[in-house]
Amino acid sequence: MKIAVFGLGYVGLSNAVLLAQHSSVVAVDIDAGRVADVNARRSPIEDADVLRYLAERDLDLSATTDAATALSGADFVVVATPTNYDPRTNGFDTTSVEGVIDTARRHAPATPIIVKSTVPVGFTLRMRQQTGFGGIVFSPEFLREGMALHDNLHPSRIVIGDKGDAAHRFADLLTQGAIAENVPVLFTEPTEAEAIKLFSNTFLAMRVAYFNELDSYALTHGLDSRAIIRGVGLDPRVGDYYNNPSFGYGGYCLPKDTKQLLANYSAVPQNLIAAIVDSNRTRKDFIADQIIAQNPRTVGVYRLVMKEGSDNFRDSAIQGIMKRIKAKGIGCVVYEPALKDEHFFHSPVERDLAAFKDRSDLIIANRRHDDLTDVAYKVFTRDLLQRDT
Fold first, then answer.
1. Topology of domain 2-188, per CATH?
2. Is 359 within 8 Å of 298 (Cβ atoms)?
3. Which positions are catalytic?
4. Which of 38, 283, 311, 373 is the most exposed place for a label (fewest CB within 10 A)?
5. Does the annotation flag 283 for ligand binding?
6. Domain definitions of the chain by residue range
7. Does 239 show up as a binding residue in the annotation?
8. pLDDT digits (tens, 9 = 90+) for 52-101
9. pLDDT grade, residue 213 (50/70/90)?
């Protein structure tokens, strides 16, 4: 079986590797560097399992920038291209997904198209109506950056937004590639599958926001936030997980997915979804005020990535803090080994860790790291549990 996978980001590459264990996979990306990396069995993303599988496993996987080559003879097309949130339109920019669907329809008109990119509720039905093709299926991803392949090998569930033969065959491919057994598989209508994705991520954002607001309260009143979180988490209905305070939820998924879900509520009464979006902004304001109150001349920004094990800077909460304190006239210096530029947001990038520490009166870090142990007295963080979640 041949599968064409469009997009070599976290979703696309992890799916390509998973499927290439038992099928012939040709991945497509507009970035020639990513294509070259995959063909050389190097990982273009920060993911330990992807790196290991590319180096050690016998995968039937190749990559190209030529869509027609990938689509020739394909039994499935998987779309995993970016859908960034566009504040001007108050919704996802689905241009890249629509472009792949159009290309697939021209080169492989009868081949089922599995959309893995996150899309607005109602997108799949709209595409079916526009193209006159019922073989467009939405199947959401529930992956963590840095652990994308792990989460595909050990999926919490597989959701397929269709109930036809192609949907069942694709679900079989996903379960075949997984290590976990007896994975729950749910077949729904496409619109329900789209809603599952957005509501799942918004619930996670709500949980992050809740414990961040708990921490804001504790910090304001001089209380032991860790003790309160521990006591709350001992209730089995709450649980001791996904409760480590941070500067705010960030990354590629939660900020944009919560805003898209809120946009989908335009004709539906709600309070909670808007509050989740607003809470993240309020948390960043609060954290920035805590830093500004210490009157530092230069603030060191330790890592721009959203979390440990990620190379993604997109919408990381620490960037929001940085912008807020710079707006008050406080200088910043950035330590980010993954950044190639000499400046970030008009602030110098310092690649020498010792020099970075010397230049910083105060160092902000969304998560603690052994790199900062010797200057712990300078570090401002709300990482109480020393884990990402």
1. Rossmann fold (3.40.50)
2. yes
3. 253
4. 373
5. no
6. 2-188, 222-380
7. no
8. 999 999 999 999 999 999 999 999 999 999 998 888 888 889 999 999 99
9. very high
